[in-house]
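Q: For a teaching session next week I want to show students how multiple molecules come together into a single three-dimensional assembly. I've collected the sequence lines for a complex. Could you give me the predicted structure tokens for the whole thing so I can convert them for display?
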Amino acid sequence: MTRKISFSEAINEAMKLAMRKDENVILLGEDVAGGAAVDHLQDDEAWGGVMGVTKGLVQEFGRDRVLDTPIAEAGYIGASVTAAATGLRPIAELMFNDFIGSCLDEVMNQAAKLRYMFGGKAKVPLTIRTMHGAGFRAAAQHSQSLYALFTHIPGLKVVIPSTPQDAKGLLLSSIFDDDPVIFFEDKTLYNMKGEVEEGFYTIPIGKADIKREGSDLTIVAIGKQVHTALKAANMLADKGIEAEVVDPRSLSPLDEETILSSVAKTGRLIVIDEANPRCSAATDISALVADKGFDYLDAPIKMITAPHSPVPFSPVLEDLYLPTPEKVLKVVAEMIGDETIVTV
Amino acid sequence: MTRKISFSEAINEAMKLAMRKDENVILLGEDVAGGAAVDHLQDDEAWGGVMGVTKGLVQEFGRDRVLDTPIAEAGYIGASVTAAATGLRPIAELMFNDFIGSCLDEVMNQAAKLRYMFGGKAKVPLTIRTMHGAGFRAAAQHSQSLYALFTHIPGLKVVIPSTPQDAKGLLLSSIFDDDPVIFFEDKTLYNMKGEVEEGFYTIPIGKADIKREGSDLTIVAIGKQVHTALKAANMLADKGIEAEVVDPRSLSPLDEETILSSVAKTGRLIVIDEANPRCSAATDISALVADKGFDYLDAPIKMITAPHSPVPFSPVLEDLYLPTPEKVLKVVAEMIGDETIVTV
Amino acid sequence: MTVMKPEMKSLTREKAKWMYEKMCEIRQFEDKVHEIFSKGVLPGFVHLYAGEEAVAVGVCAHLDEKDSITSTHRGHGHCIAKGCDLNGMMAEIYGKATGLCKGKGGSMHIADVEKGMLGANGIVGGGFPLAVGAALTAKLKKTGAVAVCFFGDGANNHGTFHEGINLAAIWKLPVIFVAENNGYAEATPFAYASSCKNIADRAIAYNIPGEIVDGKDVVAVYEAAERAILRARNGEGPTLIECKTYRNYGHFEGDAQKYKTAEEKEKHIKEWDAIAKFRRYVLSQQLLTEQELHEIERKVIETVKNAVEFAEQSPFPQAEDLLKDVYVSYQ
Amino acid sequence: MTVMKPEMKSLTREKAKWMYEKMCEIRQFEDKVHEIFSKGVLPGFVHLYAGEEAVAVGVCAHLDEKDSITSTHRGHGHCIAKGCDLNGMMAEIYGKATGLCKGKGGSMHIADVEKGMLGANGIVGGGFPLAVGAALTAKLKKTGAVAVCFFGDGANNHGTFHEGINLAAIWKLPVIFVAENNGYAEATPFAYASSCKNIADRAIAYNIPGEIVDGKDVVAVYEAAERAILRARNGEGPTLIECKTYRNYGHFEGDAQKYKTAEEKEKHIKEWDAIAKFRRYVLSQQLLTEQELHEIERKVIETVKNAVEFAEQSPFPQAEDLLKDVYVSYQ
Ligand SMILES: Cc1ncc(C[n+]2csc(CCOP(=O)(O)OP(=O)(O)O)c2C)c(N)n1
Ligand SMILES: Cc1ncc(C[n+]2csc(CCOP(=O)(O)OP(=O)(O)O)c2C)c(N)n1
Ligand SMILES: [Mg+2]
Ligand SMILES: [Mg+2]
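A: Of course. Below is the structure for the complete assembly, covering every listed component.
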């Protein structure tokens, strides 16, 4: 049974189900409940996160399991690491991924390395949920997409869903995974609706999803950019070009096999990644195929990314900053040497 | 005029010359002088940094310009950002690059973005010197090579020298550059000696150096791995294979042209990068060539990197962790389909 | 609310006039932004300073352009008090090319380095080390300048508070740390998130003076700031001043503010309003006349109206601006 | 050195014996590592705890396996006091497969989570939040356990000090923050880097008790820890205990220690030695006899000798271990 709910509702539902299933699951972060210790506040008036994603959880699970924290990311993310290592299964919310600057040590040097440094004698079943993405007019310090930084670091898993259905199933997998997972939520997807299964289900981390089949070229797109890819693919279909759209769904581990088999079929690869271009997920996927899929390739691998600049505030500039279906069409036109397809 | 001095002496000399030239250049960091406020301490008994790289600077420039800091990376690196924006030209030492977890915000959200966010009305002439690299038996939290993280972030420049001569010239360029530069020093290179020009000279940031010419394949190697590449190239030369060794010297900006022309000549590319493999400098350079140099390529692009794991402590494991000339030979053998070259 | 009794020392007629004007400008500016935002015209996150005017103005009244300030996500008030151009500010909030940051920063990053305004900041706690850096320059280059770090009660629990103040203290840097304790960080009450009763109590941890001030009383703020700045300029090091204040609007535009009570809103917004209080004060002290005040109020309305017009009529940035100013020379 | 007068409460014969043995084990272990390191046999950075034994032992004397501790780069003493196996520790320092972390962690990362030893830590200040997390589990799961965070005077200026203690304080978590103030962070004196006179003075900033203890007096440490742990187990929240101590060796092996004076070394290492002091104490209190002490000392020498032999004879890890334990199931 499915019904249409939003990306943000799907995430909320995953947390609710996880917390019902296992009392060791707790949620902590800034204003995840909201209005802590305000006597007059009705629980349903509590913020439930700066975007309302965690709304209602404090009502059901109480303030012992839904903990508002001070603005102290190193403190509460660090605490989540050992809370996880000593028996809880925390979901820590890092409000914006841009704030990783305040707690990278806890993620990179503690959460990610504990198990290895301790010779396998510890586990860190921690999920860090965090918001990313441009397009919200939130400027340079609240709009980054920093998943490449986390993908670079061994010991972390990096998950990035593009649909409500994936978001719920992947978040449930993340929460019950015994390794630290960074779960990326694009803030501009929260209101996107989609069919979502009821009840508890999981989607495995490390399994890509082919969001559209096609035989002429492969587009690997990350997070929200899956939708850019799908739009472009529809436009291309009108011109008789069938693009396959691969959604990796997790960057670490990366489902190399699905990507490589798609390129084996199509012979062409475009990667769409709205993050900055250097040492990025886009280059990572390109490099994978330039090595292990080289013999399949009929054309250079193209990447469509943000430019090498911070995210500008002004809406006109921010719109230019992001990938668009039109940019994809332009690249495809070059790739197949047919200029006519750009004229939509 | 040149003479043989060590990598660490070359770096020390660059700082000395910069501080003589411009009184706005200051140096700050943990124990960069050493023994602050210890009355009985003779200046030449001061530590001069945990590895002695800054030894002697406090004697010449005094404790106003060579500042020992508390263990507060966010504090003093953050302070360096605005010290730079308000008229100084600080060299801030982040003892080990692994400690970036304590001050990423100051580097990523402040230093790197100030100029852009302020519409070009500020500049941040800050150099952060930092130690990186495995092979020192320093374990998971003191052995990382994290330049990919910085290369991903627009607004930063990332410099990584492989020889004493380059180190001095590039550090002088970095200090007098008006943008924030992260300058990587491999701790296992400090004792390496080489011919170094006397006096003040600069090497431009963004200009790769061909450390060895060759026509059969291109090896792009980063930092210390340039020496792995050169050793491998010598071994290959014995087998009649001429490898070109390209040292990018800076990862941001990256000298795309030199890399691409080399591959245009050789048709083959191997990247050696001792950092972790995912979203790395290795994938970045691969992806560049898989796009803009695709037509030159006769073979898949190969990357020789650390595995996707933290750095192990045990010497036997750490030795397996790093790239070696033997690993390069094995890859070349596969690449050219001649197994005989691995039997050295 | 713990309150230090203000004791007039140096408030001249001219200063009082400037202060009243700046407070009115801030209030008028923020009320206007609130109004425009509610029409859905403005992009992004906007955090308004209305209600806290006395803090920015009382402190900045002592500063000139060589002095620096660091600000927060709630930065409009600091900008105005530090002398930023209102047209440029409003245009920035609109994302226009004529904005102080050419539209690239927006509300959360307005800056004017030449005026010593080192930027609003989207990172809570980001300002502590930055203020220290400006003060380090001042000390080493012997400019006689001071740096002021404005920060919220929420920021007071961030690690940078600790690192920044300790650094300033051991190096005896000319920094004034000004807490704007408005009782909330987003929806989280100060008393829940902070283990100290007052932020100023934390000064002891750094062996520096800590002072609690009625942040609705611009004269009290002015006096406390004067003491701290004197200390700083004399090379005696930093001071921590805690201003008890209140934000009249929500955390950001769109906040339903259910965590506030009707009574507290009534008290803070009506009874204890900082501008009304200062108005009564200057009249009672015969520093300014009713007519002068009226004149200022009229002028301010005009200024802000012009700023909105300027912003609305200004052009957006051009496509080629996207990649400018990433580096001093973009590569 | 400010000193709290110890007042005996609960020190039994058995406890005294355990404490003496653990202190001797630490000293003997560290002296031995020092000796071996100087022969160039040991890889990496090694930071020795000799001289500070009374701190780890006085505190851990109250803990059992369900209680947790977080440690520092100078972690051997904490490990031993928390009951880690000496063979496994020494093998770890040698990078052997039989090490507590299978040779993957080394001196700076020795851990034994089952024993509640949450790891030495190469990151200064890394332990504060980690101790808070263990205490959070204890509180939410109502285990009655406490968490102890050992940290240095250098760490006391890191932002995590502030964030960790504030969190523990507002949530009234069972954490004991134990400062090991040995006067230096690397070559940097405490008095230069810290704006406070005593680390314990900073407790006020968090509204928690702060106590200064003679860290060379294991009985004093034991008493202070008892009070703090009682408080923690009663749900009254964290305590900050500052132990004034000294490290007998350099910051790490290889440090020439020019920043120390001959006099201070003489005083701390000879006159105020913690083990000698405790030895005199247990004799004077007739808790243990000369013969018993002698027996312990003999046994400890044997234990450490065995540990070295064990380590030397142990095999190195295998190539296939390199990629194990990155993830629970490595992908
Ligand atoms: C490091 C960081 N963490 C969290 C946030 C999200 N955030 C923005 S403003 C705010 C509350 C700040 O409260 P306070 O310091 O009291 O300032 P006020 O808004 O009351 O002026 C939070 C949590 C942020 N911007 N930066
Ligand atoms: C975040 C971080 N910064 C710097 C260092 C380098 N470092 C290792 S130990 C040390 C000094 C620590 O001093 P203290 O906390 O007093 O502990 P002690 O060595 O005296 O036991 C420093 C600066 C580090 N390991 N981590
Ligand atoms: Mg506030
Ligand atoms: Mg110390």
